[in-house]
Amino acid sequence: MRIDVLTIFPEYLAPLRESLVGKAITDSLIGVRVHDLRDFTTDRHRTVDDSPYGGGPGMVMKADVWGAALDSLATPDTILIVPTPAGRPFSQQLAQQLSIAHHLVFACGRYEGIDQRVADEAATRMPVLELSIGDYVLAGGEVAVLVMVEAIARLIPGVLGNPESAVQDSFGAASPGLLEHPSYTRPVNYRGHEVPAVLLSGNHAEIARWRHSQSVERTRERRPDLLPDTEN
Ligand code: ADE
To answer: Where would one find coiled-coil regions in this protein (predicted)?
Structure first.
């Protein structure tokens, strides 16, 4: 998979060189390039924004600059992702679908966002997803890109040391729609808190049953919205 990120703050994406995604890059499982949007401006001041038509606070990112940047990156395989709090919710299911894509381009908006015609015009020639990572407003799309790239990259075969980890996750294939059960490691007694005895029993069927019931209980407590109406 190839990933291109367009931003006015390329340094903001430096964490992609670390940890799991960094290793995937080193191992050539993914290729990541970060581009400075200002390189696609044509004026002396490298202007990327202007005041909104119709008035109101803030600035809007200019369509022509974004258009030139996207033209330079688009291929027949490109899926364009625009992080925005006004997008549809990013999810594990979308991460799964995007993990088999050949080319993702992420367009990081700042200020009041990107002129809507950029996404509208791009959608005439490639799939465009305007996506939100949650119901809160960030200063720009960069952190949302870090979140989405990490969620997508760990699902690419070879990226996780043990692919079973992704299956067992909260929202993973083992228990879709359930939060992951709690996990424990040595010592057996931590400041008076014992590891649940069933995990020391060696009875794998019993352990699987216990973990499932913990998942259901946790989900009921923390995320009842994930359960079918009959279970909450
Ligand atoms: N940009 C600003 N806030 C965002 C959010 N919640 N999700 C995605 N992109 C954003």
So the answer is: none
